[in-house]
Amino acid sequence: MYGDWLKQRRAKEIMERARRARARTRARLRAVAIAVTGLALLIVHDAIAQPAPRDTHGGLSPPSGGLTRDEVRRRVERLSDLGRALFFDPALSRSGQMACSSCHDPDHGFGPANDKAIQLGGGDLRQPGQRAVPSLKYLQAVPAFTEHFFESEDDADESVDNGPTGGLTWDGRVDRSRDQAKIPLLSPFEMGNADAAEVVRRLRAGGYGDKIAATLGRSDPPDTDTLFATAVKALEVFQQDYRTFYPYTSKYDALLAGKATLTPQEARGLTLFNDVGKGNCASCHISRRGKDGTPPQFTDYGLIALGVPRNPEIPANRDAGYFDLGLCGPLRTDFANRRGYCGRFRTPTLRNVALRKVFYHNGIFRSLRQAVEFYSERETNPGRWFARNADGSVNAYDDLPPDAKANVNSEPPFNRHVGEAPALTAAEIDDIVAFLGTLTDGYEAPP
Ligand code: HEC
Ligand code: HEC
């Protein structure tokens, strides 16, 4: 009797659990569907809205209303395919040899494949750049640049002004990836086109005129403005493809999903990474999920001055009076008079950082271990990092002019002094480097 009752109750429990699981799955699928179509609609509406005001083709461009979800999805797919083709096509450059992928290599987290601090480009492929090539992965959540960033995260104090935050490039001077794409296309030391018209000539020669017309659903050939706007838009849409640019397939993501365990060394590294009294890395490179459950991005997007050493390998630095000061210029021009902003660069994500061969905005270090050692020893052993003055004293923060040195961050682990022990021992640095290796995409659980 009792056995029967127990069996019935168990069966009921199992059914109830299955029902709840199905409901959860449905809710999750709904959420994903809403997010995906929302994004798709946004993109397409935007794509059409961009060239539309300048459209002189008798209003032939299709209204964004009246599109079914399937049509929207197909259009996004077409734009993304176009963007992928453009991204890998060297025919868009004056040299005919340089594509976006030449600097942003998919096998290196869309960062540089080589260990050069800067890349050479331009029509003759000999014009030096000024900064290290950043990764293009996990840029989808970079907020638009703002001088005053107020956190809405769970335990953060919402009234605290976190200062300059967000924007694309190392100094946050661009807000949208389509505007970003114009920089390399037109830069004399990157893809080297003189103007948009030159890019469009190359687009037409490469057979993209018809492809773009088809993507826009037009029968007549699009004008120069529309071709250029659609090309940079397509590059943007391609870079929003989550399967390629933010797949969240690292071992750390598997750990968060309960599908992997860290080795003892990686686990020690994670603890040191988060520990306020040790690495304190997570205070800027956030390692926990967002309030809404989004996976950790390993950056808070803040623009911070770390005072990394000057890199004599950058040709622009041969001029002793030249300084790349990030937020206050000279590449960025809107804060030229804000000395308090000098030396600040955007905190990069650490996802896929182990695939890099150069580190920091000026590519000063060639090993990840050294990049971490710098945090530990910047203050306790400055002579190891910085050049010397004529009198033999150490010129701390030697890539900043004297009046900008006060901007350098002094929070832990930078709160030590000469003569004190560094924040991290050699073994602890190894642990953190091992942990950083768990942030590389493409982890496959051992069978
Ligand atoms: C010659 C090397 C080179 C080429 C070619 C190149 N880039 Fe870049 N890219 C860079 C460098 C260097 C930066 C950092 C610029 C800065 O901070 O001022 C950068 C930054 C970016 C960023 C901002 C990343 C961030 O972290 O905010 C994006 C997006 C980008 N590039 C996309 C592209 C696209 C799209 C193309 C092709 C149209 C392209 N790049 C071609 C070198 C290159
Ligand atoms: C106060 C904020 C802050 C803290 C704390 C911090 N970082 Fe960073 N991190 C930054 C900023 C800003 C940059 C870029 C600076 C630059 O290039 O000038 C950076 C760059 C890096 C880079 C180079 C990445 C690349 O793509 O070139 C690595 C590696 C790194 N951090 C690891 C760490 C580790 C490990 C810790 C802890 C020991 C840590 N960071 C603590 C803000 C911080």
List keywords for this structure.
447 residues, mainly alpha, two-stranded antiparallel ribbon, 12 helices, globular, binds heme C
Produce a short descriptive summary.
By secondary structure, this protein is mainly α.
Oligomer: single chain
CATH C-level label of the largest domain: Mainly Alpha
CATH architecture of the largest domain: Orthogonal Bundle
- Helix-strand makeup class: mainly alpha
The mean pLDDT is: 87
Bound molecules: heme C
Q: What's the total helix number?
A: 12
* Helical content (DSSP H or I, runs of 4+): 25-40%
Count of all domains? 2
- Amount of beta strand: under 5%
Order of helices and strands: HHHEEHHHHHHHEEHH
Which spans have pLDDT < 50 for at least 5 consecutive residues? 12-63
Judging from the principal axes of the Cα atoms, what is the shape? globular
Could you name the CATH topology of the largest domain?
A: Cytochrome Bc1 Complex, Chain D, domain 2
What's the story with the biggest beta sheet?
Answer: 2 strands, antiparallel
| Strands ordered across the widest β-sheet | 1-2
Overview of this structure, please?
The chain has about 450 residues and is an all-alpha fold. It folds into two domains: about 1-35 and about 245-440, Cytochrome Bc1 Complex, Chain D, domain 2, CATH 1.10.760.10; about 35-160 and about 175-245, Cytochrome c-like domain (Cytochrome Bc1 Complex, Chain D, domain 2, Orthogonal Bundle), CATH 1.10.760. Helix content is about 35%, strand content about 0%. The chain has twelve helices and four strands, in the order αααββαααααααββαα. The protein has helices spanning about 1-50, 70-85, 100-105, 175-185, 195-205, 210-215, 225-240, 240-245, 250-255, 265-275, 370-375, 425-435, and strands at about 120, 125-130, 305, 345. The strands form two sheets. The protein has a two-stranded antiparallel ribbon. A hairpin with a 5-residue loop joins strand 1 (about 120) and strand 2. The protein is globular. Residues about 10-65 have low confidence and may be disordered. One heme C binds near residues 134 and 190.
